[in-house]
Amino acid sequence: MADRKSTCLRLFRFAVVGSLGFLWDAGTVYGLRSVIGLNAATFAAYFVAASLNWAINRFWTFGDVGRHDHPVLQWLRFLSANSFGFLLNRGTVYALFFISPFCMHHPVIALAAGALAGMTANFKLSERLVFRERPPKSVMDLAEISAGVADAELPQCLDDESSSSARHP
């Protein structure tokens, strides 16, 4: 029950941070579109919002886990892990720009739809791959955690102890 409550609290906090990210995203698009154009501003805004979201999620949403990683490496893993959410987010935004002249004139509508499209995927990927109890020991360990073969929350030493106790009763 406590684990479910913790997950719900994290999801709520992730959504709050995502709402702030939406504001940074929209503000960046509106601030840059007259300078570099709508498409480039939309692309750049994602990285501004994702970077700010990572920082707040690191300290507030997932503050009790995942602080053992170097911040730059964790930020890169955050951007990498959330690339699927990026595709959902920006795919929705650009699709709406393409099919709706209204969205071209009012990008905030397309940005809101994109944010909702990417949020769930980003939460699960962030929880599983970025902010976790233990860092992966190797590339293979990261692949196993990503595929769900290994549990990101169990310390590796427990896995080793359980297998050695099975061999030596």
Largest sheet: none
Chain-averaged pLDDT: 82
Helix content: over 70%
Number of strands: 0
Report strand %. Answer: under 5%
Could you describe the 3D structure shown?
The chain is mainly alpha-helical. It has eight helices and no strands. The protein has helices at 2-36, 38-61, 71-81, 83-99, 101-105, 107-130, 139-147, 156-167. Helix 1 packs across helix 6 (107-130), helix 3 (71-81) crosses helix 6 and helix 4 packs antiparallel against helix 6. It is elongated. The protein starts with a helix and ends with a helix.
Quick gist of this model?
The protein is mostly helical and 169 residues long.
SSE map:
Blueprint: H1 2-36, H2 38-61, H3 71-81, H4 83-99, H5 101-105, H6 107-130, H7 139-147, H8 156-167
Keyphrases for this structure?
single chain, 169 residues, mainly alpha
